[in-house]
Design a protein that fits this description.
There is one protein chain. By secondary structure, the protein is mainly beta. Helix content is 4%, strand content 48%. It has one helix at residues 101-105, and strands at residues 3-7, 10-13, 18-25, 33-39, 46-52, 58-60, 68-73, 78-83, 92-99, 119-124. A 6-stranded mixed sheet has the order 2-10-9-4-5-6. It is globular.
Length: 125
């Protein structure tokens, strides 16, 4: 059973940075993807970024492209989301989710049942 645990959220001022971590365990295959999505109060889930473990392909939503960077460390079974130039509209609970490469590139990881409990990111203006 795949398990994911997020960490690294917090309160930061506009323009600041945070680095989220997703610790993963329970893989039975090397062909998978892990991504981040977020959900703000009263809003739908929004895919933020994902990375394919097999070939390292990365994807970013237009709202974070150029500001966020996703990376992985297979030795630690971890995926990171470096968030720079944060804006108040980035405020949300951020979740990491596990799925397939197809789900990653099709922005379907937001529907994955395999996800962590989330970490709160708050950007003050």
């Amino acid at each position: 059973e795949v398990q994911l645990v997020e960490s690294g959220g917090g309160l930061v001022q506009t323009g600041g940075s945070l680095r989220l971590s997703c610790a993963a365990s329970g893989f039975t295959s090397d062909d998978y993807a892990i991504g981040w999505f977020r959900q703000a109060p009263g809003k739908e889930r929004e895919g933020v970024s994902c990375i394919s473990n097999s070939d390292g392909d990365t994807y970013y939503s237009d709202s974070v492209k150029g500001r966020f960077t996703i990376s992985s460390d297979n030795t630690k079974n971890a995926v990171y989301l470096q968030m720079n130039s944060l804006k108040p509209e980035d405020t949300a609970v951020y979740y990491c989710a596990f799925g397939s490469y197809y789900q990653c590139r099709s922005w379907l990881l937001v529907e994955s049942d395999v996800r962590g409990l989330g970490t709160q990111v708050t950007v003050s203006s």
